[in-house]
Specification:
The protein has 514 residues and is mostly helical. The protein is built from 20 helices and no strands. It has one domain (33-215, 313-492): Growth Hormone, Chain: A, CATH 1.20.1250. The chain starts with 33 loop residues before the first helix and ends with a helix.
Length: 514
């Protein structure tokens, strides 16, 4: 799928040491239950990301209700979107300890609670806590597992699977915009948020569908990947084997697991020997056994999480991955700002009548669906580099962001919004590129970092645009500044791989001279 990893230029010089014995793959990888995981992730994107893309409707209601500045009111939407992504690294710790299923179910409850409590808001600051923080953390606890599980269940068709699942964002933005408009008109925004909270409880059902793969199945998936992509396993990042060679992530947890197994064995031995004792002693031994098993799980999960961020095999030693993080810090706000402020822009240009017939945000959402699927299919072609598709989509999107303020007719805005929707389909490629950079084992932690950077971008983007409007009474400069910062991030993506390709050549020249 990723036909030219060498374009990015990472080479660590270690071939996979995995045996070449043929292993029968799990039927659920690239098929079977994997498609239920795609369905679960699709529904998660509808209920979380789709709802957040429709917050422009509620933003206008809050402006009328609380009579606060646009900059301050925009913080509600930004906190919700930003915290959903910023908590990614910490959700990675939850996933390492509890698994994706448990994390997602807890997150679904928190998200619904945030929506319901927000229905009783008396001021904007109350919404900061209930909708921004509570619903935001809950959303993050469901969103990251939904992305990670698709990465675990798919190998050959990862880009297509991620593309199909993330089209839920486009469907959700279209459906939730219409739904929130209807609910706000018929029942008022408070009752609309209460109803939306009840709908969000379906996230718990989505989490229950996230059946985990066994460690054996994950190892088989990696063996298949190593055998079929031997030439590509040297590129892009520290692979799982490279990280193991550092002895930080692989050896220490194994030693801890061996020691913990000895403890559990002794507990089981005592339990067997104590069957003749009192029932109270047996109950106490079972509690001790459960606590010991929980301790082992927590220690292993924390060791993996800590080593990924702070150990000698830290993800931050991968320079291309660091460039990817810098790009993410600037990119997401350019996509979020139009969704939050387009309803206000339409009102300024006296285009409300046309927009009511077919909202511009709905145009972005619908075309966004096709963009994700089409870009995913293109990226899965053997002759196509996912990295190049990813970069081309980014260039198209930044051009649209810079062009949008120049359009003051409905047709012009509709064309630019359609291009924004299609080019932003590169979001479906982000998990694929991340997995290629760090490997499946560290996808949860690595993608958590990426969406955290996106969250910071989403957190400050819309309030910044609102603040600029309060000063200039125009949104033009907001889009120009956001576009230029986005371009800086793209330049980092372009420069770092070139540096990485140049370094091996310089080393080989020095060795030849010696």
């Amino acid at each position: 799928m990723y036909a030219s990893r060498e374009d990015i230029g990472y080479d660590f010089g270690h071939d996979s040491k995995v045996g070449s014995k043929p292993i029968k793959p799990n039927p659920n990888i690239d098929g079977g239950w994997a498609w239920m995981i795609v369905l679960s992730s699709f529904l998660v994107h509808i209920l979380i990301m789709g709802s957040q893309m429709a917050l422009g409707i509620l933003n206008m209601e809050w402006l009328e209700e609380f009579n606060q500045s646009r900059g301050l009111t925009a913080w509600v939407s930004s906190l919700s979107m930003g915290i959903t992504l910023i908590v990614g690294p910490f959700i990675g710790l939850f996933i390492s300890m509890c698994g994706c299923r448990t994390t997602a179910i807890i997150g679904g409850i928190l998200n619904a609670l945030g929506w319901i409590l927000s229905a009783y808001a008396s001021n904007v600051h109350y919404l900061f806590l209930t909708f921004g923080v509570t619903a935001g953390i809950g959303s993050g606890m469901v969103y990251l597992p939904a992305v990670v599980m698709v990465g675990q269940y798919f190998q050959k068709r990862r880009a297509l699977a991620q593309g199909l699942s993330t089209t839920g964002t486009g469907f959700g933005a279209f459906l939730m915009t219409a739904l929130l408009k209807y609910l706000c008109t018929e029942f008022g925004w408070r009752n609309a948020m209460f109803i939306q909270g009840a709908i969000s409880l379906n996230l718990c059902v989505c989490g229950a569908l996230m059946r985990p793969l066994s460690p054996k199945d994950l190892r088989e998936k990696y063996v298949v990947r190593s055998d079929s992509e031997e030439n590509r396993a040297k590129a892009l990042s520290h692979s799982t084997e490279t990280i193991k060679s550092d002895g930080v992530i692989s050896e220490e947890p194994e030693k801890k697991e061996e020691a913990a197994n000895e403890v559990l064995g002794s507990v089981q031995h005592i339990e067997v020997g104590g069957k003749s004792g009192s029932g109270r002693s047996m109950y106490g031994l079972r509690i001790l056994k459960t606590v010991s098993q929980l301790t082992v799980t927590v220690r292993k999960g924390f060791a993996l999480w800590y080593s990924s961020y702070f150990g000698a095999a830290s993800l931050f030693t991968n320079r291309v991955f660091v460039a990817f993080i810098i790009w993410a810090l600037f990119a997401y706000s350019s996509f979020v700002i139009p969704f939050i402020h387009l309803p206000e822009i339409v009102k300024q240009y006296n285009l409300s009548r046309q927009d009511n017939v077919f909202p511009l945000t709905s145009i972005i959402a619908i075309v966004h669906i096709f963009g994700k699927v089409i870009l995913g299919i293109i990226s899965d072609l053997p002759c196509i580099s996912t990295w190049n598709v990813f970069l081309m989509a980014n260039f198209t999107l930044v051009t649209c962001i810079l062009t949008l303020p120049l359009m003051q007719t409905y047709v012009g805005l509709a064309v630019v919004c359609a291009l924004i929707g299609f080019s932003s389909g590169y979001f479906s490629l982000m998990p694929v590129v991340t997995e290629d950079l760090v490997g499946t084992k560290h996808l949860a932690n690595a993608y958590g970092i990426i969406i955290c950077a996106n969250g910071i971008s989403a957190l400050f983007g819309p309030p910044f645009a609102g603040w600029i409007y309060d000063i200039t009474q125009k949104y033009d400069f907001s889009f120009y500044i956001a576009g230029l910062l986005y371009m800086v991030g793209i330049i980092f993506l372009l420069i770092q791989p070139c540096i990485q390709k140049k370094q091996p050549k310089e080393k080989s020249t020095e060795e030849a001279q010696v």
